[in-house]
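2024-03-11 09:14:02 DEBUG pipeline.ingest accepted 1 chain
2024-03-11 09:14:02 DEBUG pipeline.ingest length=200
2024-03-11 09:14:03 DEBUG pipeline.predict start
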Amino acid sequence: MPNPAKSASPIERSIGGLLKARRRELGLTLQELAARSELSAAFLSQAERGKATPSIVSLINIARALETDIHYFITPPAPTSLVRRAADPQYVNIDSPVVYKRLDAEIRNQRMSALVMEIPPGTSLPAVHRDEGEDFFYVLEGEVEQRIGDKVFTLGKGDSAHHNTQIDHDVVNKSDDVAKLLWVGTPVLFPASDSSRRDE
């Protein structure tokens, strides 16, 4: 299915090109970047060549490893109010087969983020973990397979999973239909600028 984020605002710069340019600017090898980001060198190499697409959380890890933030890879969201209207969704502008719709607002002292993810058939989100935080997944539609540590779970509509982000985890849609997931997690994924924060 087409990615609404792409049709709304076409990507002018590829994630792979930006990743490679920043890595070379810092003088890092793929192996060094892999150690910093806790992703495999093979995956990073594929990402640089446009053969693999990092998830939002993977991009967070990569950005930190490259001494920048996620806004280096994606267009910063426009300032928003405290309410998200269904008629005016905000999509995360990222070159990915997964559609990410942002649900959280930008408030002062924000501690969590919330997204709806639409994962096409046969698509997997690479295994990741973060040094701190929690992830909560709730299946709105379809079915996915989620690995948490050394355990694998099949999650269908109405199922949920909640775990610490220090545990390696991934999500795969092995079905023939699009899977729609609600994700809520900490810490906040998108650092907001002072001009885009809103007080309660």
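2024-03-11 09:14:41 DEBUG pipeline.report The first helix runs from residue 4 to 8.
2024-03-11 09:14:41 DEBUG pipeline.predict end
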